[in-house]
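Morning F.,

Quick status update on the modeling queue. The single chain you submitted on Monday has been processed. Sequence for confirmation:
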Amino acid sequence: MACANADWSGENFSCSICLDVFSSPVSTPCGHNFCRTCITKYWDEQVKYKCPVCNKLFDTRPDLQVNTLLSEMVDRFGTSVRVNEQPCVGPAEVPCDVCTVPQLKAVKSCLVCFMSFCQTHLEPHQRVAVLKKHRLVEPMDRLEDRMCKKHERFMELFCQTEQVCVCQFCTETDHKFHPVVPLKEEYEVRRAQLGKIEAEVQQMIQERQKKINEIKDTVKHSKADADREIADGVQVLTALMRCIEKCQDDVNQMVKERLTSTEKQAEGLIKEIEQEIEDLTNRSSEVKQLLHTKDHLHFLQTFRSLKDPPPTRDWTTVEVRPPSYVGTLRRSLDQLGETLNMEMKKLCDAAELKRVQQYEVDVTLDPDAAHPNLILSEDGKQVHHGDVVKKLPDNPKRFTMHIFVLTRQSFSSGRFYFEVQVKDKTGWCLGVARESINRIGTIIETPETGYWNIFYSENGLVFRDNPAVCLPLRDELQKVGVFVDYDEGLVSFYDVEARVHIYSATGCTFTEPLYPILCPLRHDYKGINSAPLIISPVNQTD
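Structure tokens below.
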């Protein structure tokens, strides 16, 4: 029985034997009250019948009578206690269908009554014989939805043919020949399926979350690329603006120098003319003075020195020609254009090389693909031509005639970049090749056959195509950078030391893995061209 509260009302409604709230209270002839079960059991164990409270002896076993008033009061008190002890219904919990205010949480649902009960209102199902036969289950909400609309019976079975829930009567009528199983059995099967679906859904969520992260990374990298592009653009344009400003200063200086020269010439001529004017003015004064003399001897003696004018220059052929500025601006702009083109290409190449170096990959040479004449370093970073053809086991990956070697690593998407040192070599070949290239016998190296290579020899530098593309070579190459954008179909080559773009093959179509490929070429009997090709780490500089 439920334990009573330890207050005055609880003490007044407690049995002095079990100390719990009265259950079916009865009174003894002496006026004391006990639970019927408690006093009956107490007297069954005694020789004499006495009251457990006042110890009054009875000659015969008293006929116990139910205390109706006390029983009603106990029921009210017990109900109040039990209600106060039970929790009210919360969110997502099943309420008791009998309670009004407060509405308590159901502890069981009856599949016969189609109702849910709290602990208090469940009591008749635990006491009344007929109700004890009802089927009680864990609390269920909306029991009316669990009832067969046709037979008004609880749906406890599942028809596997029509994939619906049915009651027992349904299996004897509409679903008589259909395979049916208990709901619990089908529940376990479907629960397992749902668990698998949940795992698949979680995997799909993870895949999509991964895709979101990839997209975010792409945006992040794109922003970084954009920031670098803006910075490089500012650097290039600033340098070009300096070139333009210098050109403007040069034009201004040249015009000013021409004007100054003309001004100096004019000033010299003016001074010369002014001097002649001064001489002529003095002679005029002497002549006028002589004209007024009455001394015949003096006149005749002086006339001889004054009869001829002072020596002067014939100014009719002298002129100051203004400087001509026709074509000056055009010539300056032409020169500026050439300077800007050279400077722009230089700056753009340097900025471009800096960007592609961000995609550096670590690659090592594959001994299984190397021609028998080639000697590879232990770290797989260097290769040079040897004098002896090594006896090696047959391998479909190995080149048999051309002294090529591929790297272990291949690339099927994205961008990658690597650098190869070619210092002290008089001949070499390098680039990328697709996986399915011919490695046996004579090889024609063109993009059509799967090779994107540049070749250097005493005849110069070329991109191997049909026909070959001759490339400019300013100075001896020290290090070559190779950049591939697989998705864009681009292969580019760079002079790393000069930070200059050499050549780009565009519009390429890649459908299989690409491998970096190196060829050190043979060396002669004097050891010329014996230096190795070296895959070098990127050393970025501003």
